[in-house]
Amino acid sequence: MTINITDRSPASDRDRREQLGISVDDLAARAGISVDELTAYEHAKSESDGNPTIAMKVADALDRFERDIDPTKDDPQAHPT
Fold first, then answer.
1. Of 6, 10, 24, 63, which has fewest CB within 10 angstroms of its CB?
2. In the Cβ-directed half-sphere of 36, how many Cα atoms lie within 13 Å?
């Protein structure tokens, strides 16, 4: 499930990571950032307090993890209406 950028926050990204069962180490590695950078981002009070480059890397990595878990997500062919 791709999250709209306006619906994101460091706290919601942390919640999403936890719901997906992804460790801080795994997400940091997938995002190409350090654990310290991820931890600082997840503890930012708001998106504007976080590093925008880190935020995009985290969002992209979370999307990739989600697709790996369920490759049919975001595939209109997989869910015909």
1. 6
2. 0
